[in-house]
Design goal:
Order of helices and strands: EHHEEH
Strand order of the largest sheet: 1-3-2
Radius of gyration: 11 Å
Helix content: 40-55%
Structural class: alpha+beta
Number of helices: 3
Largest sheet: 3 strands, antiparallel
Length: 60
């Protein structure tokens, strides 16, 4: 399992980091762990699947 930081997810999805944190808070993108600073870490596969679903529904 490969983890992505909030910054990496934001870059991958081409959105702001604040939006990634909001998606996690609203349980639309589920974090698997927290880093040493308490920031969420996301599974790369989950992020890729989220992007695919979002694109099918009309975009991010």
């Amino acid at each position: 399992m490969s983890f992505m930081t909030v910054k990496e997810v934001a870059s991958f999805l081409d959105i702001q980091e604040v939006r990634v944190e909001r998606l996690e808070r609203e349980s639309l993108l589920i974090s698997k762990e927290k880093d040493v600073d308490g920031k969420p870490l996301f599974d790369r596969t989950d992020v890729e699947n989220y992007k695919t679903l979002a694109e099918r529904l009309g975009g991010l």
